[in-house]
Amino acid sequence: MANLSVKDVPEELAERLRQRAARNHRSLQGELMAIIEQAANETEARSVATPAGPAARGPDAGWNARRVIRRGSKSIEQIATEHRARFPQPIASGPSAVDIIRADRDAR
Predict the structure, then answer these.
(1) Within 13 Å, how many C-alpha atoms sit on residue 88's CB side?
(2) Are residues 41 and 61 in the same domain?
(3) Region 26-44: what's the mean pLDDT?
(4) In a domain, 74, yes or no
(5) Is there a domain that residue 103 lies in?
(6) DSSP H helices in the chain
(7) Is residue 108 part of a domain?
(8) Domain span at 65
(9) How many distinct structural domains can be found in the chain?
(10) What angle do CA 58, 63, 64 make, to 5 degrees?
(11) pLDDT tens digits for range 52-83
(12) What is the pLDDT of residue 40?
């Protein structure tokens, strides 16, 4: 993992960053990492040309059309898209949850 260093940060700016970190319940290091990650993701998103419109926003767009940034997880929209791709038709039949629970309870 790389180490980065920022030198000669004005005290006023450092204090504002500390306050921002406290508001977000993060350490200063965690807040700086979140800022860097967001900036890198925004730069990446701008470099890819995408058509306008709600359908063109993709599964990473939140309710206000801004990209949702997550670390190590998928958004609801991504999961729904993957699920629809794997299972295009709804399940027509199968055991109900009530029947499964009854059978399990009766087996004891």
Answers:
(1) 1
(2) no
(3) 87
(4) yes
(5) no
(6) 11-23, 28-47, 76-86, 97-106
(7) no
(8) 51-88
(9) 2
(10) 95
(11) 555 555 555 555 556 656 566 778 888 888 88
(12) 86
